[in-house]
Structures are given as C-alpha cells and as structure tokens.
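Workshop exercise sheet. Pairs work together: one partner reads the sequence aloud, the other fills in the structure field after running the prediction. Swap roles for the next sheet.
Pair: D.N. / O.F.
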Amino acid sequence: MQLTVPHRTVADTGSFPVNPDGVAAWLKDLRPLESETDAREVYRGLKHSNRLHNDVDQRRAVISCFIPVLRELHQHLSDLSHAQPLPLTREFSRNARMRDALLREEAFAFKILLSDSKGPLADDARRAMQALARQAESMAHAYRRVPDALIQDAHQLYALAEEHKLLSARQGSELLSLLDHYRFIMLVSVADLTQQRVRQLQLVLDFLRSCVADIHIEKDRDATSLRYTDYAINLHQGSRPEPALSLLGDLPEQVRWFSIAPLLYRIDKYSSRIRPNPTGVLGSDVLERQSLARLHVALSRTRHRRTTRRVMHETRRVVFGHKEVCAHLLYRPEETPAREESGWRAINLSTQGMCLANEQCRAGLVQVGELISVTEPDKPLRSPEDSESSKIDALLGVVRWVHASGKEGICMGVEFLAISVMPVRVIRDELSRHVREGAATAPSAEGRQEVGENALIIACKVQRTVVQTILVPSYLYQSGDRLTASQGGRSRRVQLRKCLQANGLFSQFSLADG
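Structure field:
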C-alpha cells in the first residue's frame, strides 16, 4: 500500500539545519509556549524538514528532536482552544489551526520514514496513526466533520501495517497500538459528536478511547452474517465506515468489517451505573447519562425524523443564552425592533424544530445545550391587539447539534421547547430559604428584600403530559424552592418541583402553585 507523502527536494543547508545536532540547537533557542511567533517557527521547521531529502536514520534522529517540543505545544494549544463556544475567536481559531497543521506534519514525518525504509518499523507506523487520531479528536472538538483525506491516510496506514504484520497490540503497555488508534478514528467518524455539549465532549472521547478493545476488525465476512450493528470499511476506496447492510453487489477483498454491538452493550452497562444528578451542582464534570444516550442513538442509527420539514430560506432574529433571551422577551415587547443584519437564516422548519445557518456568525455565541429564541426580524414580540396578554409568541428552543464550517460559518439544529413564552421576574421566598438553611428565627422585614432573577414560564410536554415549567439560571435554585413570579403589576407564588433538566447553561423545573 502506497502512502501519501509530500514532494521532497534536495536539502539546502543554508535555509534550515538538516543534521540532528543543528536541529536540536535551533529548537533550544525557541520558546513556542510563550511566543506565537516561535510556535510558527517550529511548524515552519518541521514542514521544511519533511520536504527535504534525507537519510532515513538521520531523519528519524531529526524527528526525535521535534517530538518533545511538539508534545508540549500540542497540549498547550489544546488547552487554549478546546471546550469553547463557536465560532472560535480569532486567537482560539489560530491556535486550533496551528495544532491541526502540526499534527498533519507530524503524521507526514513518520509516513515518510515508513515509505523510505526498506522494512517499515511498527513504532513509526504507530506514531503516524497516533498523529492522525489526535487530528481526528481535534476535529471533533471543533465540531467539524473528520476530513476524507484523514480517513484515507488512516486506511493506507492500516493496510500497510496489515501487509507487514505490524498490527499486534502491545501487551501490558499503557501506549495505544496502531490498531487502537485506527479503531478510535473509525469510531469518531461514525459517532456524530456534533450533538455533545462542550463540557461533555472530552469525556465522551475518553470513553470511546477506552472502548477500542471491544471493536474487532475482521475480513472475509459472509453477507448472511451481517447485522444492523455492523460497519464496512473499504481500504482501497478510502471512504469512511458505512452500514454493512447498505452495501450492494459483491463484497471485495479489500473490505473490512467491525461490529459496534459490544460498544452499545458497554454504553448500556456504564449508563446503568451512573447516579442521576437531577439539579446539577458545581464541581468537576462527569460523564452523564444523556451524553451516553446520544452516543448510543448515533452509533446504532435509531434516530428517525418524527415529522416532515418545510424547506425555506428566511431571515430570523436569534438570541442566545438564558439571560439574553429573558431580557429580550421581558422588556419592551410592544416595540418594533430596529433592523439588524445578524445573518441567521432558517433553512428548514418542522413542528419539532428547525435548522439555522449563518455564514458569518459572531464569535463565541453557539454551543450545544444553549437556550435560544427565534422571532420575526421586523415584527414586535407582542402585537397591539394582544397587549393585555402576558404571553409572547416566540419560538423557544435548545441547540441540539452544531456543525462548523470555514472560519465563521455555523449550521445548527434547534429543538423547540415552546411556541409561546411568559417572561417573568422571580424572587425566592425568604421564609423558604431560611428554613432550608436551618435558621432559627424568621427573617426581619429588612432582610426580606432579595435581588430577583429573570425566568421564563412555558408549557412543556413531559411523558405525554403537558405541564407548566419554568426556566431559571443554573445552580441558583433547586426542587422545593418557593418563588414569587411577577410581570408588570401581576404576581403569583409558585413552587419548584421536579428538575427536568440542568445542563450548566439553564435549569428547567416543573411548577406548582405556591
């Protein structure tokens, strides 16, 4: 199997050192963790080295000089760009592009060693596949599709390792083998991680990495033995894994198979051991049942469209975040909003949700799980004839998946929570708070005043029953709290009952009269 490597020219010793001692001395003078310019110099040096002819042993020694610097720089750039709302800011975007470019050149370096060596070494193949796996993980953090070129490179490395019998895993070693990294890339390419929240994404990736041993890649499978949990890989075609039952015609020799049934079983088993955390508390993040449930649905392909959708291309006013949505809906709903070119377009619409796209989205707005409101761009939130109503006709929803494209392009899917909203101001009942805190005496008149919070009351369907719910800021309230909700001159005492969801961005409780 021939590997894809860059074109190389005769070495020019005046432009860049080609011997290991010269490279080590050159790297010693750089501070890539402190200077972005020095980080670019490291990338320039590695790229230049990959495009020069060199002896195999000397090239391996040169790469060994780069490896410690690349590891520290990769970790540094990952810390700066992971778990960020989309689109990334310019600084974070530069860091992400630099990290991907370094990983791409690192993979090139070891693939060149494999192609130039008379007998390919297992460690060179493992390191090349490791760089590809890290690049696939980086794409997942950016909510981007794993590139076809990366999948093709992984197939080429796997075929070469299979041909030269380099696939055996290291027994008793903490290092993942080439086969482990390859299986991880295949899982990431079919797991649809664009529907995972940013705080859960790394935990889901770590879970997938821990499950690679359950994935067994086979050859010469009989067509009658294939199930819906089986995927097919065409090594020569270089395409991403496809459902095995969707293949037509004869099964060529270059096709490999793997089943996700053991992985689905592990997801179910692991999920059953997770203790539910209904209200959400501050602290370190742990893998949640909801994240595993979404992973299970994506891998098993059991998601089906519930209703038909209408294709459209219309401008919409979109507001992100609980605090911003409350302020947008609560204050001056009768006024016609000023014309605003936000760039959001509704691509399709159904009774369950809609797809929105923006080619030049403002940085740091979008993330999975965020609360959003969608309204007409040139109409008031409340018409004059409905001025006495306490409700506002606005589509309220939650971002369920995000795809990033280009530098600022965003496409996202929104699941509707309600089509009408009652924005209110809530104040916690002081007597309830003191009882919860164990106070011996009731609060004084001076202590009864408390800063309120904005909230949204909506009717929501929960297990085939429509109940009244309230959306409040995360971590501030819990089940049993008594609140006073007010809008204008009207007020109502309510009590928070069951917490329906708490994702760190907002909390939703069912309501009862207080």
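Discussion prompt: The first helix runs from residue 20 to 28. What would you look at next?
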